[in-house]
Every structure is written in structure tokens, then in C-alpha cells.
Amino acid sequence: MKKIRFALLFILITISFQAQKISGKILDENNNPISEARIGIENKTIGGVTDSNGNYTINVTNIDKTETFKVIVNEYEPFKISVGDLLQSQNYTIKLKKKMITLETVIINPKKYINKNFGTANTKQAYCGVDSNDPYDVFIEHAIKIKNKKKLKIKNININLTDFKFEKTATFIFDIQSEKNGFPDDTQSLVTETLKLTVTENDIKNKRLSIDVSDQNIWTNKDFFVLVRIADDFKGKLSFAGNIFAFSKDTYYRNYFGEWKKYSGAEPSINVDVMIEK
Known about the structure:
eight-stranded antiparallel beta sheet, mainly beta, Jelly Rolls, seven-stranded antiparallel beta sheet, 2 domains, 22 strands
């Protein structure tokens, strides 16, 4: 009996030792809290976002110490540190540096630019859904790739829904990212602030939502990705429209900071209005 008790005690002590959550704050250089900072383990489906006071908690139980803990906020330089070094420091307050953005002066000759729309704008077919009762759904991020070789400016990001039912409001978070090894690269965002669109059900007209990003001055002459996810406080259900059995189309998706994956043969209804060189 004593041996059994000792064995159980040893197991409990071992589990307690292995189970490890860390809590901290994400601040700017002036010690102001940064809300909605995305934190997590690189290439793992483990993470979360900071609250209004910059607080975060993450479970690193059984995470290899060589894995990378990272923080991504569009306005700030990406932060990365090994889990081992973070734990050893015993200081879980992280300060982010503001990005130094050099805006290119662009002289626009209206005769040399035209307006176009790239992406998928289908509203008839349901492509994928988000259900707040499934935590995995809420942290899924979808992206489409826009192939481009001309100078263009992104004016609007648009999404189409087929069905929706949610409490109070829903917040959609967008990003524009450059490409790395064929996938989006969250360390190379083309925007200088978090792009958010908060709506009620009554704001959704003709199953379409649009966010004006003209003032962001987003210019590129390369391929880029358009990303969208739902904020983690979403309560309800919704379905994105899309093209199904479109064999020339690809969907890119990930959960938290998990590895990006590509699904060929379909594409969610995400599109952009641009001003592009003729």
C-alpha cells in the first residue's frame, strides 16, 4: 500500500512539474499595454491574444525548449525568443519596438492606372464556417494569394458570407503579407496597423463586407497574400462564401501560429479592389 501511495505521489509531482503556464504583459517602449497582440509558439497550434491591459497566458507544458515563442503586432517589430530562454529569464514582460516605416513617394498619373478587382467574389456557395462553440474554428486564419508583377495600390479588402448569426458584433481582422517559400510571412506585413472591421448583422449588406484601406498607402509590385480571421471574442456562427471545385484556385490556412497549409481546388470569397498600372 505504501508503495502504491508513493507511486501515486510521484506521478502527481511529475505532472505538476511538467504542467507549466506562464503569464506576462506585452508593452510598447513607453510601457503602455498592447492589446490584441498575437502570441504563440511558432509552427504550433498554441497561442492567444493579449487582453485590453496587454496581459497574456500561454501553456508551454511539454513544449520543447528549443521551440520559438513569438509575438506579432502589425505596428511593431516581430519578437522572437526560444521557450528555454524565456523561461530562464523568468521575466515574461515583453517590450515591442515600433516599426520604422519609410513611405515611398508615389506620383500618380491617372492615365497610367486603372481600377481592378482581384480574388474571388462568389456569394452563392458556402466554403467554410466559423462556430464560436469550437475554439479551433475561431483561431483559423484564411488567406488567398494574388499574383502580381505591376505596381498597384490596395484600396479595399472585401469578403462575402453566405450565412451568419451572431451576438451583438463580429470583428474581422485582416492583413496583407508578402510571400516566403510560397506561403504568407507574418514578419513581412505590408500594413502599419491592425486592420479591423467590427460589424453588426445589420451592417452586412448583400452578404458583403468591405474595409477601406486606402489611407494605409499599401503599394506593391510583387505577389502578395490577403488574410482574414475572426476575433477571438466572436460569439455565433457564420459561413464564408467561396469557389468550390475551382481547380486553378488555392486556399491557405493555419491555426494560431501553426504552419501554413495549402488546399488546392477551392478558394474563400476574399478579394481586393486595387489601382494598378496599365
